[in-house]
Amino acid sequence: MSAAMALRSVLLACTCLLGGSTSAEPLRVDLELVLAVDVSYSMELDEQRLQRQGYVAAFLQPALVEAIESGPFGRIAVTYVEWGGSAVQVTPWTMIDGRGTAAQYSELLSRQPIRRIAFTSISNTLAFTRRLFDFSPFEGSRRVIDISGDGPNNSGVPAPVARNSTVARGITIDGLPIMLKTHVASDSASIPDLDAYYRECVIGGEGAFLVKVTDSSAFASAILRKLVTEISGLEISRLSPATVRPAQFGEGYNCFIGEEMQERMIGK
After folding, report:
1. Is residue 68 within 8 Å of 96, Cβ to Cβ?
2. Is 71 within 8 Å of 115 (Cβ atoms)?
3. What pairs with residue 38 in β-bridges?
4. Pairing of strands 76-83, 209-211
5. Could you tell me the end-to-end alpha-carbon distance of the chain, in angstroms, rounded to an integer?
6. Looking at 6-10, 34-38, 81-85, 152-156, which range is the least confident one?
7. Which residue in 239, 230, 224 sits closest to 207, CA to CA?
8. pLDDT at 4 over 90
9. How many of the other CB atoms lie within 10 Å of CB of 251?
10. Which CB contacts under 8 angstroms, 24+ apart, belong to 228-236?
11. Could you tell me if 77 and 138 are in contact, meaning their C-beta atoms sit under 8 angstroms apart?
12. Maximum C-alpha span of the chain
């Protein structure tokens, strides 16, 4: 058996335990959603805990369950990935079709250990996560990668290269730029306009948008708002313009800023 076949068998078995399907035909869902969560060393441990708790809490919220149940199939498939310079699939593809399965997923996620991974490679993460769709036992009407992060790409190929390859496969990339640093200059992995970086260099595809987090107290509400938007397919214009930005690819932004910062650090 090839490595790819073995991995698919493991994923199918795990998904069955969590409410998925092992039928020959993939189970139709409204959305296949990858939650790609930054756990690089630039993320403080308290920020990581806030981020994890935000996702754990979101799957217990009636608004999220209502968004799932309101779709044509009334179910989605989700997987949770943590990333830095490399990426790790923390939970297998899991079907969620109501309050019960959402609560089970929340509990599963809450039991996972907090990890940290060196470097920040948005490009490696996009390459890793888009391959997860090949092993999904589900077939989504939409496929979305929801990527959070607190700094620009500084490892692997430039982020726009991976973005373009991902969007070319019909996958939408949404962003959650985390902008909680109070002294950006002292943190070599952060930039003051991270939302602009995500808008110009990371997100893409049909309906792509970003929600920025600038206050730790708003972490959970931002995550919930973003998930409900992705699951329900809400028009971005219905959301607060102060926190949501649609994808607009302009010219003149330096998408190599992370690599340049890393090069300067190495040269010191």
Report:
1. yes
2. no
3. 83
4. unpaired
5. 48
6. 6-10
7. 230
8. no
9. 5
10. 228/63, 228/64, 228/67, 230/31, 230/33, 230/144, 230/146, 230/174, 231/30, 231/31, 231/33, 231/64, 231/67, 231/68, 231/71, 231/76, 232/67, 232/70, 232/71, 233/142, 233/207, 236/207, 236/209
11. yes
12. 56
Token pair for 26:
């993939």
The pLDDT confidence band at residue 161, using thresholds 50, 70 and 90, is very high
Burial classification of residue 60, based on how many CB atoms lie within 10 Å of its CB (0-12 exposed, 13-18 middle, 19 or more buried): middle
Structure tokens at 129: 């996560």
| pTM for the model | 0.85
Range list of H helices, the chain: 3-17, 45-58, 62-69, 99-110, 122-132, 159-167, 194-197, 219-232, 257-267
15-71 confidence digits (pLDDT tens)? 444 544 445 689 999 999 999 999 999 888 998 999 999 999 999 999 999 999 999
Distance of alpha carbon 85 from alpha carbon 217, whole angstroms: 27
SS3 assignment, position 175: strand
* Token couple for 111: 């039991």
Report d(CA 38, CA 30) in Å as an integer: 25
Asked which of 55-64, 86-95, 255-264 is least confident by mean pLDDT, the reply is 255-264
Taking alpha carbons only, the member of 188, 187, 172 closest to residue 231 is 172
CA distances from 168 to 86, 115, 163, 227, 251 (A): 22, 31, 8, 23, 20
Q: Strand 209-211 and strand 27-38: pairing?
A: unpaired
What tokens does 255 get?
Answer: 């998408």
Comparing C-alpha atoms, which of 116, 115, 123, 71 is closest to residue 97? 71
